[in-house]
């Protein structure tokens, strides 16, 4: 325990030092800034009746007022934002940035941050685990895909689901990511009609990319200056082409064509398809391998709004430990203005789990996605000598070891170098702790924890020392199959490792082998929440429940860039890859949102979010409540409203709607003053707007959100009652409908809904209700429940056909 805690503290200190180093970049020894760096100047909404040219001119005039004589404003500008919002990014000194902060009309000025990417069967699994059948009118017909010219895989006819029906062919999903590989069969445009006339985007020419790489499926591709994050600049190698793989994977997950014969070198075989296979794709390359520039993220949002996308998918974010405020967060800023223009924004929750309060991208106008597993596993077993049965392991490997157990087996502790005194580190096979002469030609049994050196680094070290293979004992990360291409490696649980240790202790010459991975389907239980998925509550406000919903994000098969090397025994490169992260979960929901938008084109982003959240499922494929991958019961802080149910979201019955005014009131309650809110909103606010005199973070709970979060209620000294208000709109086929409520509340908490029945008519389509929370706290059991720090449950409205479920969490 001490070892794990010390390593965790070390990583936190390194993160702090890295942050301080980044903040101090460009400073001389005396602390003064010796060279300019990029700052973002955010100026809120575009003023009414202002043309882009006039706005750009005003930006340059403002910038010119703070620059030293001889520096031209247009020579320091990196980006200008002129469509969805107003502002610019420029290379400035610290003093120049400070001077701009004091200028009228400026909301915020902040150093250009570097964000990180949050790095088949998943869609079939989502259809299998749904509980409500929704019939879709298919009279408009289905688009057909023809055979793709790429060898080994071909575009298939659209699947029998609503995402491939014709309305979706006019929806456009924009992705802010690492670029795209246009030759992938996932982006073949066979069967697609003309690009929607409302599309205003472009296909930029760049390095190894020209306009012919776009088509009627991939309709747009832009790239931005990434020189600040180690990537190319527009004038030096810039291109929409993906050289990381991440953007190609997320794009095909969201909207890729159905491609038959897909697999990762024979693993996970089947048809790979996107959530909205009929949607068009637009890529905005804002990331390089080393990170994503905040100034480029804002430029991507600005262009996506003007280009005409319907959904923006963002699989990246800030560090869970250094989250900026909303007015200094490029994702929060860009998403706010996109949603104000009717564009849905879906973001990954982050990969900093399972620790609490690590969720990012938590602004209430963003749909925030956690990651879960699917019912597929990759088994790679350990075969022991003697008459022992095989020990089950999990990994993606292409082991070329003999199937017979003939390789000497040794523990890391037994292979400890004589120059190392720390046996615990050797048992974990930390680099530099083992004697290479003791492990050459052998399979090494190593323990592993999340605070260790990475698994891949350990494998590389063992391979360099001549080991024949490795068995990692790893409980926390068992649900994610790691790919080991060069060394036969598998991962086993502590319980399974006990059998291996027992065998080693009993055999005079223990031997073993590791089998290559095989695909296991219908694995149970699934889904479970992945260990890496960031958890709530949000560190920015506990009165908005985040994440919002969960989706498949573990070992997802989707398109990839051509690899630089092949696994042992493989002769042809795979066009697909198996990747994990909330990055992979996010485009699943983006695809679902595009489908909901296609069938309900007038719905607001909030209505689409509500439909997705209130129809989510909380049961696994054993018909039991979902858990985390450690086996504990999953809470709303783990998975939000539950696992996305794409088909059910098409007919939610009721929706919780919200608009820009609601989010502006949120900003008031969060703590922004009226003048700042007026700048952010621009012409959307009346001239006499002011924040309410009683604005407070407690009132954030009243935002018309599909989930409820209330803080300050629990604790032995607390006896107060909290009432929140919600309003639902009937979007069902029946104008006259009666919904009754059912409450699921934990011990220690009283929950009352008033009224308990909602009567909708042709003239009464939107009705309000109140939910009152109070402590029962009459016995020790209730106090024990409250002592846990958070109590959760749900309220569900039903008319006999629809189930409209909203989770709630109450905290101290």
UniProtKB/TrEMBL annotation:
List the GO molecular function terms: serine-type endopeptidase activity
Classification via PROSITE patterns:
SUBTILASE, SUBTILASE_SER
**Is-annotated flag, keyword Hydrolase?**
yes
Please state every residue range assigned to the domain named Subtilisin-like protease fibronectin type-III.
Answer: 702-810
Q: Where is the signal peptide?
A: 1-23
Family under the similarity heading: Belongs to the peptidase S8 family.
Q: What is this protein called?
A: Uncharacterized protein
Lineage in the entry? Eukaryota, Viridiplantae, Streptophyta, Embryophyta, Tracheophyta
């Amino acid at each position: 325990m001490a070892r794990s805690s010390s390593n965790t503290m070390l990583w936190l200190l390194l993160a702090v030092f890295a942050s301080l180093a980044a903040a101090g970049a460009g400073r001389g020894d005396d602390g003064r800034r010796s060279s300019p760096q990029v700052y973002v100047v955010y100026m809120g909404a575009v003023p009414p009746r202002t043309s882009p040219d006039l706005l750009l001119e005003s930006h340059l005039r403002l910038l010119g007022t703070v620059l030293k004589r001889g520096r031209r404003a247009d020579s320091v500008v990196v980006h200008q934002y002129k469509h969805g919002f107003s502002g610019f990014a420029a290379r400035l000194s610290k003093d120049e940035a400070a001077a701009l902060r004091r200028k009228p009309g400026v909301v915020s000025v902040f150093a250009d941050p570097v964000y990180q990417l949050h790095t088949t069967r998943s869609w079939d699994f989502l259809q299998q685990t749904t509980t409500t059948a929704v019939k879709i009118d298919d009279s408009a017909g289905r688009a057909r895909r023809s055979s793709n010219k790429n060898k080994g895989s071909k575009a298939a006819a659209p699947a029998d689901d609503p995402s491939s029906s014709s309305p979706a062919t006019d929806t456009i999903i924009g992705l802010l990511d690492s670029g795209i590989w246009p030759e992938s069969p996932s982006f073949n445009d066979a069967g697609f009609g003309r690009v929607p006339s409302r599309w205003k985007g472009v296909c930029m020419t760049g390095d190894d990319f020209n306009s012919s790489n776009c088509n009627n499926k991939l309709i747009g591709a832009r790239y931005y200056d990434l020189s600040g994050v180690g990537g190319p600049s527009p004038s030096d190698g810039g291109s929409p082409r993906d050289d990381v793989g991440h953007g190609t994977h997320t794009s095909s997950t969201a909207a890729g064509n159905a491609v038959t014969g897909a697999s990762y070198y024979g693993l996970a075989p089947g048809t790979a398809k996107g959530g909205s296979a009929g949607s068009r794709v637009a890529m905005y390359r804002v990331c390089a391998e080393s990170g994503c520039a905040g100034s480029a993220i804002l430029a991507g949002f600005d262009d996506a709004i003007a280009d005409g996308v319907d959904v923006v998918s963002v699989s990246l974010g800030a560090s869970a430990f250094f989250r900026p405020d909303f007015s200094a967060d490029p994702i929060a800023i860009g998403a706010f203005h996109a949603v104000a223009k009717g564009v849905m924004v879906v973001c990954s929750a982050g990969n900093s789990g399972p620790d609490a309060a690590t969720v990012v991208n938590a602004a209430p106008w963003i749909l925030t996605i956690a990651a879960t597993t699917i019912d597929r596993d990759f088994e790679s077993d350990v075969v022991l000598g003697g008459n022992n049965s095989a020990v089950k392991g999990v990994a993606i490997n292409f082991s070329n070891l003999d199937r017979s157990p003939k390789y000497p087996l040794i523990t890391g502790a037994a292979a400890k170098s004589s120059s190392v005194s720390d046996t615990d580190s050797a048992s974990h096979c930390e680099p530099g702790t083992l004697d290479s002469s003791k492990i050459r030609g052998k399979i090494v049994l190593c323990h592993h924890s999340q605070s260790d050196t990475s698994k891949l680094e350990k494998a590389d070290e063992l391979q360099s020392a001549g080991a024949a293979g490795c068995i990692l004992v790893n409980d926390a990360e068992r649900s994610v199959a790691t790919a080991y291409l060069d060394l036969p490696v598998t991962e086993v649980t502590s319980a399974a490792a006990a059998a291996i240790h027992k065998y080693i202790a009993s055999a005079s010459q223990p031997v073993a082998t590791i089998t290559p991975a095989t695909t296991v389907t219908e694995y149970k239980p699934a889904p479970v929440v992945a260990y890496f998925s960031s958890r709530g509550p949000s560190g920015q406000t506990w009165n908005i429940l985040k994440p919002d919903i969960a989706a498949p994000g573990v070992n997802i098969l989707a398109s990839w860039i051509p690899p630089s090397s092949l696994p042992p025994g493989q002769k042809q490169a795979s066009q697909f890859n198996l990747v994990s992260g909330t990055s992979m979960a996010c485009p699943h929901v983006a695809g679902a949102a595009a489908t909901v938008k296609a069938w309900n084109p007038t719905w607001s982003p909030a209505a689409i979010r509500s439909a997705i959240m209130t129809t989510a499922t909380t049961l696994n494929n054993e018909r039991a409540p979902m858990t985390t991958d450690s086996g504990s019961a999953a809470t709303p802080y783990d998975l939000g409203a539950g696992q996305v149910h794409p088909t059910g979201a098409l007919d939610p019955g009721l929706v919780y709607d919200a608009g820009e005014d609601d989010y502006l009131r949120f900003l008031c309650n969060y703590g922004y003053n009226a003048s700042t809110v007026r700048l952010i909103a621009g012409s959307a606010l009346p001239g006499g707007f002011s924040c309410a005199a009683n604005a407070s973070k407690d009132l954030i709970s009243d935002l018309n959100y599909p989930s409820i979060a209330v803080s300050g209620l629990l604790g032995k000294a607390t006896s107060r009652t909290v009432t929140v208000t919600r309003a639902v709109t009937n979007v069902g086929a029946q104008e006259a409908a009666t919904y009754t409520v059912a409450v699921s509340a934990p011990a220690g908490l009283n929950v009352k809904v008033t009224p308990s029945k909602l009567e909708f008519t042709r003239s009464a389509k939107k009705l309000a209700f109140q939910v009152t929370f109070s402590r029962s706290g009459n016995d020790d059991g209730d106090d024990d429940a409250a002592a846990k720090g958070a109590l959760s449950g749900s309220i569900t409205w039903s008319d006999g056909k629809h189930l409209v479920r909203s989770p709630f969490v109450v905290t101290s």
